[in-house]
């Protein structure tokens, strides 16, 4: 466009030069002179109009360039802002991922501890069940043994007093052997204690 302006300026100067030459030569034909003058004026006006349009075009181009530059600068700022927001978002996402991983790890540990607790609880329940069954067998055996012992004791309580009485009647009235008498007294005491034990067991 600058080259075109230079060209138009050169043409304008050339026309002015021609005009001056014509004036100096003193053209006798006034009509031709007037026609040439009008044509030159028209060309001058057209050249001025074209120059004005070119100047306006240059102004529009300059304004457009400024607008484009402003838009580019704004776009660059917006891009930088978006990149910063994306960076912050990535940081938040990383933090959230770390928190989620920590929560999952904690949950796994809690599940493992709960499974271990349930396992130990089940083992304890099994041991208690086995202990209860074993104690049931012991109690059953103890009851059977006690029943047998009680049966023997009942028979002894029934038979021993009569045997003691027969043994005492067979002893001499005066001066019975001391050891025999001690044994008989011990047997009587034992019978009394057995009767008391049987009575307490019966009451319970």
UniProtKB/TrEMBL annotation:
<feature type="coiled-coil region">
    <location>
        <begin position="79"/>
        <end position="134"/>
    </location>
</feature>
<keyword id="KW-0175">Coiled coil</keyword>
<protein>
    <submittedName>
        <fullName>Uncharacterized protein</fullName>
    </submittedName>
</protein>
């Amino acid at each position: 466009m600058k080259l075109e302006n230079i060209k138009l300026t050169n043409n304008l100067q050339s026309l002015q030069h021609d005009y001056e030459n014509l004036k100096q030569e003193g053209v006798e034909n006034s009509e031709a002179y007037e026609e040439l003058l009008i044509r030159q004026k028209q060309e001058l006006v057209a050249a001025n109009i074209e120059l004005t349009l070119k100047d306006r075009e240059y102004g529009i181009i300059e304004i457009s360039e400024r607008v484009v530059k402003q838009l580019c600068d704004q776009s660059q700022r917006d891009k930088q802002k978006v990149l910063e927001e994306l960076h912050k978002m990535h940081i938040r996402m990383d933090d959230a991922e770390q928190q989620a991983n920590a929560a999952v790890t904690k949950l796994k540990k809690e599940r493992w501890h709960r499974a271990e607790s349930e396992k130990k609880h089940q083992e304890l329940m099994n041991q208690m069940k086995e202990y209860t069954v074993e104690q049931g067998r012991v109690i059953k055996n103890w009851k059977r043994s006690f029943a047998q012992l009680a049966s023997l004791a009942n028979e002894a309580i029934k038979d021993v007093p009569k045997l003691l009485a027969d043994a005492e009647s067979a002893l001499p009235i005066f001066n019975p052997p001391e050891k025999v008498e001690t044994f008989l007294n011990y047997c009587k005491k034992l019978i009394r204690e057995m009767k008391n034990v049987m009575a307490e067991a019966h009451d319970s």
